[in-house]
Amino acid sequence: MKNLSNVRENLNPINNNTYATRFSSPLPEQQELLKNLEKSIAESTEFFIGYPLNLNFNYTPLIPFFQYLINNLGDPWESGYWYIQDKNIEQQCISWLAELYHLEAEWGYVTSCGTEGNIYGMFLGRELLPDAILYSSKDTHYSIAKAACMLKIPHVVINSQPNGEIDYEHLKQEISKRTNHSVILNLNLGTTMRGAVDRIEPTVDILEKLKIPFYIHCDGALGGMLLPFMETAPKISFQDYPIGSIAVSGHKFFGSPIPYGIVLTRKIYTDKIKHQIEYIGCNDTTITGSRSGLACLFLWYAIMTRGQQFAGEVSTCLENARYLYKRLEEIGYKPFLNDFSTTVVFDKPSIKICQKWQLATQGSLAHIVVMQHLSKMKIDLFIDDLLA
Prior knowledge:
Layout: H1 2-11, H2 17-24, H3 28-46, H4 87-100, E1 106-111, H5 114-128, E2 133-137, H6 142-151, E3 155-158, H7 168-176, E4 183-188, H8 200-210, E5 214-219, E6 243-249, E7 261-266, H9 267-270, E8 276-277, E9 282-283, H10 293-306, H11 310-330, E10 336-337, E11 343-347, H12 351-357, E12 360-362, E13 365-369, H13 376-387
Parallel strand pairs: 2-3, 2-4, 4-5, 5-6
Antiparallel strand pairs: 1-7, 6-7, 8-9, 10-11, 11-13, 12-13
């Protein structure tokens, strides 16, 4: 027993100064590694314009929470036996978004990313309509095909129009071939490459005329937070349309030092997948179980401090997207900009330019997603690089 006590004493960080020092201060080589990593990320951030991430944020008032594990375990609307959580904060965020999308009797949670939200939407659709076939356009984000593979849902890819929007006539033709199966339909509120918006109204019209049971999921990774703040944009309304779910990315429009997302649905849909977990004292209706309470704090803080400014942020991004379009047109790069989008597509420049500015590319095209951190001054620097 004496030897065992010695072992415990040596392993106890409180009683062992060497152990405590080892983990409280990085060694010189570790400090150098962290210093170089920070420098690399800072330099890369300076020239980051190709992907839909808002890098203009400040969450320093939340630093005191970084010393705690905040885990929103299980269903966000039930407390359970786990108290190191901020589910009340999460609920406020979900309710704010539900009001934005005209969703009553809402249910939702803060996910790890937009992909998890898309997988959750496909999962709900499959559970509600086990015989369903999934339909999505060629311009749909790759996470939808991934979800179909994971969940073993038959998947039919629909043609896209030249602007990236789903081809409604082709959708009607393909569904008409399989009227003995229900439909899970993914609609893009801003496609990945071209920022095109699949319209909810014409697709609902097609499905209702064919009299087929259906479930609609909206991938609103970026567009889900742009469209509600544009006066003439297509409406995202659970009240006006039979939408099943919507997924939004938190690190895109809101901005965040960590990736996260949000998924919303009608509460009645989650009743079928509830599982009471004795171990945690509540139901778990999520995919991951453990979820980041810190992400909920980031989302809540963004809404509370900037919520009244979101319309202005969207307006500025649209203005700067048009400015970028004009500058690219002037130098012959054949830009393209969809309505209700801040994604400017243009002829792919040199590899050197693509690497420096971290441009997203596809074939002979590249794009820039104009976010809050991309100013006209930085656009001019990019144009100068193209000219050089």
